[in-house]
Design goal:
The chain is mainly α. Helix content is 71%, strand content 0%. It has one domain. α1 runs antiparallel to α2. The two termini are 18 Å apart.
Length: 65
């Protein structure tokens, strides 16, 4: 079960994928990078694994692991 922070990172990633404007994408990407920096190693790994399951070809945030 993902932690609350992992779930939030995944939600931010989904918003980033859906963002139409470049400024909006940059805002969500910045927030996602900041949140990923706070995750514990096991949370980062859970995020990476979940993201790869849901969007295997997506690399908007880069690998967190």
């Amino acid at each position: 079960m993902p932690t609350e922070r992992v779930a939030r990172a995944l939600a931010l990633h989904a918003r980033l994928r859906a963002a139409a404007a470049a400024a909006e994408r940059e805002r969500w990407a910045t927030e996602l990078r900041q949140l990923l920096a706070l995750l514990a190693p096991e949370e980062r790994q859970a995020y990476v694994e979940a993201r790869r399951r849901w969007h295997p070809s997506d690399d908007l945030a880069g690998d967190a692991a």
